[in-house]
Structure formats: C-alpha cells, structure tokens
C-alpha cells in the first residue's frame, strides 16, 4: 500500500481536506430551505 | 530475525485491513446530509449525496480489491500485480465524487470544485500508491519471510499431528507419532539455524508432514468402524509410520550432511507408497 510515510501523510491530509471538508460543507452549507427564506439554492461564491 | 518477520507480517495485515478505509469514512457526512435532505424534502440532494458516497465507496472497494490481489500475489513466487488500473480508477472516481460534492452540494464555484476533485484524486494516489500493471510483486526481506512462512506452516502441521496423537489409543502408534514429532521439530530447528536448508527441506516437510497428518486422520476416522479389517488397517498404518519415522530421521541426517540428491526419489517413493496402501 502507498509509498513513503511522507507521501501517505500528505495523501491522507489531502483526502481529509477535499473529501472530509467537502462533505461537511455539503452538510452544513447546503441549500437553505423555504423556512430559511432562501430560494432553495444559494448564490455561488463567484456570483454565478 | 523472526521478531522482525512477525512485526512485518502484523504491519502488513493492519495495512491490508485499513486499505481504502479513508474513502468509506471521510465522506460519511454525505450520508448524514442525505438523511437531513430527505427530512427537508430535497430529493435532488438526497440522490446526489447517496450517489457521491457510492462513488467514494466504489473507489474504496477498488483499493481493497487490488490490495487483496497483490497480497495474494506475494505468496506466489511468480506473483504479479493486477493488470487492471484499480488505483487510478479509484482516484478518478474519488476525484469525480469530490468535484461533484463541492460543485453540486457545497455550492463552490467551478474552479474551486475542480481543485477539490484534483486534490482528492491526488490524495488517493499519494495515500494508496500507483498501479503496477503486472509488475513482479516483491517485498523487502521476502526471502526471509518465505523461510518463516514455511516454518510457520510446518509448526502448525506438527501441532495438528500432536493433537491427533491424543486421539490414537494404540500405545505403539502414539510412541511412533511422538517420535515423528520430535524428528520434525529437529528438522525445523535445523532450518532455523541455517536458512539455506529450507530449500532442501521445504518439500520434505510439506509432503511428509501432510502425509503423516492425512494417514493419521484416516486411521482415526476408520479405526473402530472396520470390524474384520481392523487388523489389516493397523498393520498398514504401523508400516507407514515406521517408514515415515525412518525418513524423518534420514532427512535430518541429510540436512546435516548437505546431501539432497536422493530427496526427490524418496518423495516420489512415499507418495506412491501412500497411494498404493490406500492411505491417501
């Protein structure tokens, strides 16, 4: 499995940031519902 | 040396057990999100969350699959890594799922979402390595490992023989089995002292120890149920045990003398003998 200890550590950190953080953001920053006064989907960060 | 082997084997077992686990654990919030979105009535988000989790999970499964195949190849002297790009596929699927999660569920802008995808794919490659496409699989110290694998196997066979000995009521047979055990142990000790002896003794240990276990198991199973044939069975078993005891002793002496020329002939002779006597 995997390469050196350093490469595995960097890899796990990358996975934690991209997959872990991404999924948590999906959970906590998801679309606001009608109860929140939103239209169902927030504006993107680039305004698009 | 043996301690190092045990430590390496334990480390490999842990590493195989852990393979692909991050890809199951890290996206778990997506499943929570799916339940949450179901409660809020957003079918789109439920489907996307479950779908992306499934993609991550599929990636994890691919990593586990290739790790298992490579572990199997390690036990084979001609073993090769799988030809299918399991790890790259897992990286691709994880990248796609991370991109989708960031773009469609966390509502990042396109370039940030692409960064998430590329980062996840790179993370999979950095963590689990690259595919080796049919390359010969070997571990550092694998020759040393092979010695201890063989010794392990022989040790287990001897334990099995000792266990069976307890089921044999005939005193003479028990004594003979006890002596087989002693000679087997001496051969194992000889190999421990000089690993080069393994090459010469491995096949002997496999054929003779397995042979002794098989005939003893057959004897224990059929003894007492054979009626008139009991005497005949005992006579054949006694003859085989006597022959084996002689061979164990001779093999030990051969190892001491570094004489292997007649080993193959002996092995063929034994196999033929066992078959002929209906004990195999």
Structure, described:
The complex is a heterodimer of chains A (48) and B (280). Chain A has 48 residues and is mainly α. Chain A contains 1 helix and no strands. Chain B has helices spanning 2-18, 21-25, 28-39, 43-74, 86-105, 110-128, 142-165, 171-193, 197-222, 230-257, 263-276. In chain B, α4 (43-74) packs antiparallel against α5. The radius of gyration of chain B is 28 Å and the shape is elongated. The interface between A and B is large, with 33 and 45 residues.
Question: Oligomeric status of the shown chains?
Answer: heterodimer
Number of strands of chain A: 0
Structural class of chain B: mainly alpha
Beta-strand portion of chain A reads under 5%
End-to-end distance of chain A, in Å? 41 Å
How many β-strand runs of chain B? 0
Number of helices of chain A: 1
Indicate the topology.
The complex is a heterodimer of chains A (48) and B (280).
Chain A: H1 5-28
Chain B: H1 2-18, H2 21-25, H3 28-39, H4 43-74, H5 86-105, H6 110-128, H7 142-165, H8 171-193, H9 197-222, H10 230-257, H11 263-276
Helix pairs in contact in B: 3-4, 4-5, 5-6, 7-8, 7-9, 8-9, 8-10, 9-10, 9-11, 10-11
What distinguishing features does this structure have?
heterodimer, A: 48 residues, mainly alpha, 1 helix, B: 79% helix
In short:
The complex is a heterodimer of chains A (about 50) and B (about 280). By secondary structure, chain A is mainly α. Chain A has one helix spanning about 5-30.
